Amino acid sequence: MDSESSDTAPVEVRHLVQQWKRLDEVLAGLKKDDWTAATALPGWTVRDIVAHIAGTEHMLAGEPVPDIELPESAREYVHNPIGELNEKFVQEARSLAVEDAFSDFREVVAERTEQLAELSGVDLEAETDSPVGRVPYRRFMGVRVFDCWVHEDDIRQALGMKHHLGGDTGRFAVEEIVRALPRIVGNGAGAPDGSRVRFRVVGEDDADLPLATDVVVDGRARLADVDDAARTTVELVFDTATFVRATTGRITAEPGRGVEVSGDEDLGRAILGSLAFTI
């Protein structure tokens, strides 16, 4: 996809291609031993995350899921059909040398970039299965942005690198989390009618993602603009990394450790215990 094409591509495609470039830059700077570092994802190393990303794109490029039996050890952390599909690509790639695993990532990303550049408006709006249900293809590509963005952070966290969750792609990707907040507050934490929960994410440099939104419960939980004149039941103030890593199930957020809770402490703790929403 050349610069002219990228300027006119749908926002989901532009951010996905940009996120792949960011991942490539990170991976190109790794030492060989870095690829075998354990990550926050059970059973997966850095190279397994790369294999997962590449495997998903191989599948979207039209290649079949590997026809292999998973080892018994994988059953300790594979708990659903999507997890099983992901693990088959990971297991198949474990026989590759690090250099070949990186080359495979680059090759399939290049192939997918070209495929995405050729999609018509009709193709982008066509309904397809995705981790968030049956949605237009462009919406699925937005989910791919989120997945790759989170996995870049998994790699950075595993290697002790500073997170880089900000920027235009980060602001786009974090909307997947924001969309999930009403479900977290209403279904997960069971916030009662009349509750108003404020989420703030703070940060002062380009790696961060400052944001603020309210969730109000009135029959059902829904997003609402921040209203400083309204009474807030509980407010949760996160640093960027804690917000992303807790909502994606990498860590369990606790008051005083990357998040501060003010107001209804019981509801606040219930929300913190319900943050993880990803598969």
Automatic annotation (TrEMBL):
<dbReference type="InterPro" id="IPR017517">
    <property type="entry name" value="Maleyloyr_isom"/>
</dbReference>
<dbReference type="InterPro" id="IPR024344">
    <property type="entry name" value="MDMPI_metal-binding"/>
</dbReference>
<feature type="domain" description="Mycothiol-dependent maleylpyruvate isomerase metal-binding">
    <location>
        <begin position="18"/>
        <end position="156"/>
    </location>
</feature>
<dbReference type="Pfam" id="PF11716">
    <property type="entry name" value="MDMPI_N"/>
</dbReference>
<dbReference type="GO" id="GO:0016853">
    <property type="term" value="F:isomerase activity"/>
</dbReference>
<dbReference type="InterPro" id="IPR034660">
    <property type="entry name" value="DinB/YfiT-like"/>
</dbReference>
<protein>
    <submittedName>
        <fullName>Maleylpyruvate isomerase family mycothiol-dependent enzyme</fullName>
    </submittedName>
</protein>
<keyword id="KW-0413">Isomerase</keyword>
